[in-house]
Amino acid sequence: MRHPSRETTTDLNGRGSVLAAADGPVAPTQRIAALDVLRGFALLGILVLNIETFSGPAALHDVPLGLAKPAFVGWHATLDLVIFAIKWLFFEGKMRTLFSTLYGAGIVLITSRIEARGPSAKAADIFCRRNLWLLLFGLIHGTLIWQGDILSQYAVIALLFMFPFRNVPARRLIVLGLAIGVLGGTLGVAQAMDVKQVLSAERLRTEGAVALAQGRAPTPVQQSAIDDANKAKAAEPAEIQRSIAQGRRPYLESISSRTAGYFGFVDMLFHTGWILEVIGSMLLGMGLFKSGFLTGALSKATYLTTALVGYGIAAPLVLTGVAMVAASGFTVAAVTRWIYQPYAVEIFAGAIANASIVLLVVKSGWLRGVQAALANVGRTAFSNYILTSLLCQCLFAWGPWKLYGALDYYQQIYAVLGVWAVNLVLSALWLRAFTYGPLEWVWRSLVYWRRQPMRR
Question: Which residues lie across from 6 on neighbouring strands?
Answer without folding.
Answer: 20
